[in-house]
Structure formats: structure tokens, C-alpha cells
Amino acid sequence: xxxxxxxxxxxxxxxxxxxxxxxxxxxxxxxxxxxxxxxxxxxxxxxxxxxxxxxxxxxxxxxxxxxxxxxxxxxxxxxxxxxxxxxxxxxxxxxxxxxxxxxxxxxxxxxxxxxxxxxxxxxxxxxxxxxxxxxxxxxxxxxxxxxxxxxxxxxxxxxxxxxxxxxxxxxxxxxxxxxxxxxxxxxxxxxxxxxxxxxxxxxxxxxxxxxxxxxxxxxxxx
Length: 222
Fold this sequence. Notes:
The chain is an alpha+beta fold and 222 residues long. The chain is built from eight helices and five strands. The protein folds into two domains: 1-85, no CATH class; 112-222, Homeodomain-like (Arc Repressor Mutant, subunit A, Orthogonal Bundle). It has a five-stranded antiparallel beta sheet. Helix 1 (71-84) packs antiparallel against helix 2 (89-109) and helix 3 packs across helix 6. The two termini are 19 Å apart.
């Protein structure tokens, strides 16, 4: 679970090291910087700083991550909003996973074509969107639909639809094992389904059971 444990907005003055991963998104720049734990780094300026606990990323130094379409900045702004308002822990957890996913996609992107990297970024930005249609999203990209589907499978070993399914199932798994709850009780299957891009809890449960071999209500009990 990539738990967001700190957010700073506005004037930032980061100098030194942190025990956790830091993601710094400067205002007006089409990039973010991932700073691993115990890494010396300095930044002064306006932006958003997200502190993520236990992020499993192999960066060994502060690394700039391109954000030409603003997806990382958008996710960070939403995280800042929910963190400040002490809003839904479930959504905040999903945003933490999304920010880490962008960084992971950048690492993978060093070995994949720009076209496939664009598809991955498109999918990762809609993992929790219940209204998202992957086919429509792919058709909106300036790429031939059939060509990009074949290229994606050639370079990654799976189809775009399988990639989206994997991301949603791993997010669901993390939310369940993380025992995310509100002040009264653990979140329901329907709440987890919605956070993973499924509007129908029953359909989500069937997909989850087919993927993991056990219903979401039973997963992790043993």
C-alpha cells in the first residue's frame, strides 16, 4: 500500500533527506521528481510535495519524470485536496497507488516505445474511473487502434485490456489487505469496487474471484 502520509502545497523548501519517498511537482513545469528515501535533494519554489510511505520503487537517486499531459500534477492536486480535507481514505490510498504507478510506468518506459508508454499513461490515469471506456480512450489517441493493440502486446506480453484488469485487481487487492476503513467499519465491497473503476459491485466480485480464485469478501482472511 502506497500510503500518503504528508502533503505540502504552495511555497516549498525541501533541503536534505526524507525517510520516505517524496514526489515533488513544481508549478509550471511538465515534470515531477521522485526522491527516494535518504537521498539528498534540494528544491525551492512553488508546487506540491507528496510524502508516500513504503513505496516500492527502485529509484536510487532523485529522478525527473515527464508529465507533459499533466496527469501526475492532477493526481497530486487531488491528493492534496483530500488530504487537507481529511476526505475519503479509500480515494487517498488509490491516489497514492496512482502516483507510484506513474513512476513505475516511467521506469518501464525506458524499455518500451513512446506509443506504448502513452497507452500505459492513458490507462493508469483512469484506473479508478467508473465511466472510463478503454476502447474509446485508445481511439482518442493519435495512433492506429489495431496497430497500438498489437504493439502493446508485443512489447508487454499482454493486451491493453489485460493491463487495465491487472492494475484494477492489484489496486483492489491492496485496498482489501490494507484494511482501509472509515471511522465506523471497513469499507464495503461496493466502495472498493467503485474505487477500482467498477460501478457494479456484483460484477466486480465475479471479476475479482475469477482473477484471484476467491471472493473479495473472503480475500486475505487466511
